[in-house]
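Interim report to the steering committee. The following record documents the input for ATP synthase subunit delta (176 residues).
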Amino acid sequence: MAELATIARPYAEALFKASLSDLNGAAVWVEELETIAKNPQLLQFADNPNVTAAQVYELIAGIAQGALPAMAQNFLRTVIENGRLSALPEIAAQFRVMKNAQSGSSDAVVYSAFAIDSTALAELAATLEQRFARKLNVSVQLQPELIGGIRVVVGDEVLDSSVKARLEQMKMALTA
């Protein structure tokens, strides 16, 4: 079977080209469809041979917050009819990468042991943008196992200033 990234690439490229006039608008509904498509029960329903593509489409359209734009409807129908619903999260990820490349920004995930308030997050985002020398779309995910501090992932770069990482470094130094 082909890799999911290989399957998703033509869909992401076509979606990107078709939505160049409104990338931000498309990003909103692509993200929503991605979230919906990650549901294992939905994927199981869609894989049922007794369920039609129209039924899957109606279910997803019904779950979506508000009405989907015409482009989103056409895109979703195409993905479902081609049996690629399970590839939708990867399509969305590749679309996001293309959108970020177009705008000169990157996604940054900040893993934190504790919740970060909006003021601190804004300051952190500004600092990270200087550190990584580009505009960042920052999101936060809680990871209590970090004990304290943060771990930032921007593309393939990782900045880890968590207590857990420091303890691991100390452990390595002591056992070396």
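DSSP finds eight helices and four strands in the chain. The committee is asked to note this result when reviewing the revised timeline.
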